[in-house]
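User: tokens in, sequence out, please.
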């Protein structure tokens, strides 16, 4: 994989060894503004605490909101702007801090409201027992946006496992989502029965190792994903992306399967198939990039978000 900062590289290598299963998975708020634009408004019912970096300026100050959703609390971080609301959703095992370097640039480039959040069990969000449930994660996202006053013009930016959340969220809320940038994301065409079997078998050693230390967020997510991997991804394979929601589909050159040419070929083919299923989808290859596209090619991700913000439905 392309070089990144050493601490992140060590953590990402651990994550990507399991990415064949999680991919694939383990290895981002004073809400205010005009409701008619979809920008968040402060919601007294959230019980949010607030914080901002000491160096925060107009383009990078964010506020934390803890949102109650189905009996657990989910952390949302909002950098307030105008126009669309851009929601950044990190891959498996990653929390909202994954996007910390992109948020100020994205806010400065687009002027938009930028929201990052921690899915259940990651970052500041409370864990939920049981197997990974992408539909429940999508429901958490909807609850957070609703409580923050976001009612329209949401642009989803989803990396890796977050592609599953984006698919179910867009499917249930097609009028809320004005566009998406899917960054080397899990996409339904990839998860054939044959590929699900390959992934499960190849990653059993990582699952067994995770059982020895199940308390870390990464291992907890790996184990919860493995718990119902086959039925969940058979269902995901049948999920459909709404035709009315445009998408820019970024696929990495190296894929999560840099050491497996067969799986890498299938990953590329799935991205191409998904992009060809509707005329409002565009396939973009992140040349030279590993699966970790937001770290390896941040300028490409920013450019694609900018294009989608300019032409969203």
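Assistant: Sequence out:
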């Amino acid at each position: 994989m392309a070089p990144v900062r050493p601490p992140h590289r060590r953590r990402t290598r651990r994550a990507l060894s399991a990415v064949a299963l999680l991919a694939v998975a383990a290895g981002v708020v004073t809400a205010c503004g005009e409701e008619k634009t979809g920008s968040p408004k402060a919601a007294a019912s959230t019980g949010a605490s607030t914080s901002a970096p000491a160096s925060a300026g107009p383009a990078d100050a964010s506020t934390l909101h803890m949102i109650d959703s189905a009996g657990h609390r989910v952390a949302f971080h909002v950098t307030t702007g105008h126009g669309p609301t851009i929601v950044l959703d990190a891959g498996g095992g990653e929390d909202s801090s994954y996007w910390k370097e992109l948020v100020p640039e994205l806010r400065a480039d687009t002027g938009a409201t930028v929201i990052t959040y921690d899915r259940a069990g990651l970052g500041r969000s409370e864990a939920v027992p049981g197997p990974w449930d992408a539909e429940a994660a999508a429901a958490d996202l909807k609850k957070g946006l609703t409580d923050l006053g976001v009612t329209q013009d949401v642009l989803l930016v989803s990396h890796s496992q977050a592609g599953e959340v984006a698919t179910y969220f867009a499917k249930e809320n097609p009028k809320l989502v004005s566009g998406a940038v899917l960054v080397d994301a899990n996409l339904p065409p990839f998860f054939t029965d044959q590929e699900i079997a390959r992934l499960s078998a190849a990653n059993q050693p990582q699952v067994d190792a995770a059982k020895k230390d199940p308390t870390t967020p990464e291992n907890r997510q790996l184990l919860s994903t493995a718990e119902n991997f086959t039925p969940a991804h058979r269902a995901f394979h049948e999920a459909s992306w709404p035709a009315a929601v445009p998408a820019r589909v970024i696929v990495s050159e190296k894929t999560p399967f840099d050491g497996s040419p067969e799986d890498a070929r299938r990953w590329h083919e799935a991205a191409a198939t998904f992009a060809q299923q509707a005329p409002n989808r565009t396939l973009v290859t992140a040349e030279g990039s590993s699966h970790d596209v937001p770290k390896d090619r941040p300028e490409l991700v920013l450019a694609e978000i900018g294009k989608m913000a300019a032409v969203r439905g």
